[in-house]
């Protein structure tokens, strides 16, 4: 029977009983009393049905409803259908949840769900193993109470999660982890934890290899250089045939020495073993000195200017900053043809300072820009080698600037020139 029919029958039944009660009342003279008794019985019946409904919903384990009549039979049946549907979807959800749990448990990467206040809501088995989380103790704890690494704390606060952050596991110094946050919903974040110990070890082996080879090359190079210098100094005693080879040997030894020195510098910077050792430095003074050196290097072939609107002091390593700035300025001198202009500036910004080196040299095609700071990346191998660089200069600049909390930025247009710049925060 459809719902409407139940209600129709109920209304028909109530109307009929009321009419019969009124007729009997008219005959007996007790209309009010009979109507009262009838209404009270009807109400009592409804109360009983409500009570049965409550008992069925709260105490009974039976899915099937108790027998009933009239509209109550319809109500019981509708609730029964609703419960059946709910049980079905609950079963489906439980199955999905248990599948999700087993698959995330099998994940080699740790997954941690963080709430609005970075409190831990849920994590998988791998997160337990990699970070040492404990279901009983750590649910609801802030993640920064468990991973206290300052790099991770500032990554979390910074809000820029495009790149992961690398930290040492809080339970084992030998385990290196890569942590990456992803935001979802409104204020929830998923923290993915990857074990990168093997990658880290390989990278360390590579760094050590480069550092050791460069170091070992230093001694033989010094010896060769010594002999080449002796030959150069007494060139007039050598047959003319040897003059050109001796000059070329001198140039190549010098080039190899620069290469070895740059490789060693890069290894030191990459290893991060040495802290930045921040002291107060005046970038405008450093730049002024380098511009004078650049003028000497240019030998009057370029118009080199320096403009600074402040003598601000920042925190940093003077030697490293000198090396980074001079790499950029000397590159401008080396790559800008005769007659070109080079502008070096140190200007105040709203919340810091900008160092920029601008030239009107050959410029760099946009396809090269993302790779320019890679080791040995060159645009035109022949031309760049003849200019005499090692191909490591911008890689060194990148590392130094990163150690100083800033980033090398490059804008360039072929045929118009290039601008290499970076922004520093003001010291508070
Ligand atoms: P190199 O020692 O070869 O100069 P760098 O790492 O300093 O190596 O620079 C990488 C490459 O970037 C250079 O080989 C050169 O092609 C290009 N480059 C750097 N500075 C400039 C510039 N001011 N103008 C044009 N090209 C440049």
From TrEMBL:
GO terms for molecular function: ATP binding; phosphoprotein phosphatase activity; phosphorelay sensor kinase activity. InterPro entries: BphY/WalK/GraS-like, HATPase_C_sf, HATPase_dom, His_kinase_dom, HisK_dim/P_dom, HisK_dim/P_sf, PhoR_N, Sig_transdc_His_kin-like_C. Its EC number is 2.7.13.3. It comes from the Bacteria. One of its GO terms (biological process) is phosphate ion transport. It is found in: Cell membrane. The chain crosses the membrane at residues 12-45. CDD domains: HisKA. GO terms for cellular component: plasma membrane. PROSITE patterns: HIS_KIN. Residues 212-428 form the Histidine kinase domain. Keywords: ATP-binding, Cell membrane, Kinase, Membrane, Nucleotide-binding, Phosphate transport, Phosphoprotein, Transferase, Transmembrane, Transmembrane helix, Transport, Two-component regulatory system. It catalyses: ATP + protein L-histidine = ADP + protein N-phospho-L-histidine. Member of the two-component regulatory system PhoR/PhoB involved in the phosphate regulon genes expression. PhoR may function as a membrane-associated protein kinase that phosphorylates PhoB in response to environmental signals. This is Phosphate regulon sensor protein PhoR. The lineage of its organism: Bacteria, Pseudomonadati, Pseudomonadota, Gammaproteobacteria, Oceanospirillales. The gene is phoR.
């Amino acid at each position: 029977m459809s719902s409407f029919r139940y209600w129709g029958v109920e209304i028909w039944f109530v109307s009929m009983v009321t009419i019969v009660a009124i007729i009997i009342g008219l005959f007996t003279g007790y209309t009010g009393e009979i109507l009262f008794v009838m209404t009270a019985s009807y109400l009592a019946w409804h109360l009983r049905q409500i009570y049965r409904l409550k008992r069925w919903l709260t105490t009974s384990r039976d899915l099937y409803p108790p027998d009933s009549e009239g509209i109550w039979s319809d109500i019981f049946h509708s609730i029964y259908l609703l419960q059946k549907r709910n049980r079905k979807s609950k079963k489906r959800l439980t199955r999905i949840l248990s599948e999700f749990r087993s698959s995330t448990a099998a994940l080699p990467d740790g997954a941690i769900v963080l709430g609005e206040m970075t409190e831990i809501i849920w994590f998988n088995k791998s997160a337990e193993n990699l970070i040492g989380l404990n279901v009983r103790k750590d649910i609801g704890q802030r993640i920064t109470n468990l991973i206290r690494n300052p790099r991770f704390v500032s990554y979390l606060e910074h809000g820029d999660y495009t790149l992961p952050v690398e930290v040492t596991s809080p339970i084992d110094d030998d385990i290196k982890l890569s942590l990456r946050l992803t935001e979802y919903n409104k204020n929830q974040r998923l923290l993915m934890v990857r074990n990168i110990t093997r990658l880290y070890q390989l990278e360390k082996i590579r760094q050590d290899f480069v550092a050791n080879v460069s170091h070992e090359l230093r001694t033989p190079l010094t010896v060769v250089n010594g002999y080449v210098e002796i030959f150069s100094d007494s060139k007039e005693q050598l047959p003319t045939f040897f003059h050109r080879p001796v000059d070329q040997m001198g140039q190549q030894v010098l080039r190899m020495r620069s290469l070895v020195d740059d490789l060693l510098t890069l290894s030191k910077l990459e290893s991060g073993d040495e802290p930045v050792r921040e002291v107060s430095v005046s970038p405008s003074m450093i730049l002024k000195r380098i511009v004078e050196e650049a003028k000497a290097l240019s030998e009057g072939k370029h118009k080199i200017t320096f403009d600074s609107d402040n003598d601000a002091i920042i925190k940093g390593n003077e030697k490293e900053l000198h090396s980074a700035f001079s790499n950029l300025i000397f590159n401008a001198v080396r790559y800008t043809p005769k007659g070109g202009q080079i502008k070096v500036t140190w200007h105040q910004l709203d919340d810091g300072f900008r160092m920029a080196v601008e030239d009107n040299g050959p410029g760099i095609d946009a396809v090269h820009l993302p790779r320019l700071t890679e080791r040995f990346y060159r645009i035109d191998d022949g031309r760049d080698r003849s200019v005499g660089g090692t191909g490591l200069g911008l890689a060194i600049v990148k590392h130094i600037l990163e150690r100083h909390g800033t980033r090398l930025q490059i804008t360039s247009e072929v045929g118009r020139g290039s601008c290499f710049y970076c922004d520093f925060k003001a010291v508070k």
